[in-house]
Amino acid sequence: MKTNFKLSIEELDRVIEMAWEDRTPFEAILFQFKLAEKDVIYLMRSNLKTGSFKRWRKRVNSGNSQKHLRKRLQSIDRFKCTRQKSISNNKISKR
Q1: Which Pfam families does the UniProt record give (predicted)?
Q2: How far is Cα of residue 74 from the mean position of the Cα atoms in its chain?
C-alpha cells in the first residue's frame, strides 16, 4: 500500500500519541488530521517497532477497546486537564 502523507514530524508524533492513547477515538484523528483508521494503522506499523505495533494492535482489536465512538460507553468522558490549552481543528493556541 502506497500512501502519501504530508505530515510534519510534530504532526506525526501527535498522531502516534493520539493513536496510542486508549481514550482517543479514531474519529478524533480523522477530524484533526484527515487520516482514516487504515491510514493510522499504516503509520503506526511503519513508525513503531514491531513488538510495539503488535501490542498496540492487540489492544485496539480487543473486545473492550474504546477507539471507536460507536463502541464507547456513554459514561466515558474525555479527560481534560485544567492547564490544557484548547485545540481547535488542529490549531494549538500559543502560550
Answers
A1: DUF2805
A2: 19
Q: Dump the DSSP string for 10-34.
A: HHHHHHHHHHHSTTS-HHHHHHHH-
**Would you say residue 71 lies in a domain?**
no
Cβ(69)–Cβ(27) below 8 Å: yes
DSSP-derived secondary structure letter, 72: S
pLDDT one digit per residue (tens) for the chain, 95 residues: 445 678 899 999 999 999 998 888 889 899 999 999 999 999 999 999 999 999 999 988 876 666 766 655 555 455 555 555 555 555 555 54
Q: Which domain holds residue 39?
A: 1-64
Task: Name the grid cell of 78.
Answer: 474525555
Report the C-alpha gap between 14 and 29 in whole angstroms: 9
Residue 14: per-residue pLDDT: 93
Q: Is residue 50 in a domain? A: yes
The answer to whether residues 67 and 30 touch, using CB atoms and an 8 Å cutoff, is no
